[in-house]
Amino acid sequence: QSVLTQPPSASGTPGQRVTISCSGSSSNIGSNYVYWYQQLPGTAPKLLIYGNNQRPSGVPDRFSGSKSGTSASLAITGLRSEDEADYYCAAWDDSRSGPGVVFGGGTKLTVL
Amino acid sequence: QVQLQESGPGLVKPSETLSLTCTVSGGSIDNYYWNWIRQPPGKGLEWIGHFYYSGRTNYNSSLKSRVTISVDTSKNQFSLKLTSVTAADTAVYYCARGLGVEVTPPYYWGRGTLVSVSS
Hints:
heterodimer, A: mainly beta, three-stranded antiparallel sheet, 45% strand, globular, B: mainly beta, seven-stranded mixed sheet, four-stranded antiparallel sheet
């Protein structure tokens, strides 16, 4: 059971807008930055969003992130076939039982 | 551009110690948080822990009793040791670096190395 909750799957057709949600708590998303990663099959995770809504150099502006309270979202506009991948959210967790980085369980995005 | 490369045995016997090294190029190992993350086959990402150059460490509470992360600044490397491994420790292991001096999820990642635990 992951600390951050994501839907296991999402889908869309080419050109559509798709959103992936990530739900947490006051000790993680509620008080720290959210990161989003894209993982293509057989490859390492690639950073898409950091600091809730910042894109690293080279990441298309079709990808955007937002945060409200203890939840965050990743939006992908102009969906393309190459966007088919697993997506993970992550945040630092200030939990007294053991601070650390926590991940969502991942969302598999299918481009129909 | 910072680059990270994991290295170590691809096969470890049950009850033995898993040892991996991450070599950092394109930047100094001073400053930043240096992380290890793993991903069992077909499953999600699990943070193992990190080391800050000042000596501060944080470990996943579920692995804390078996994990040690250390840094060798002379070689620009950091390492992971996981003791008493079982088949459940079979995973792709990634080393990664944070963006700045704050505790955040990793920014730069290595390509990962598969470690299988089997006799």
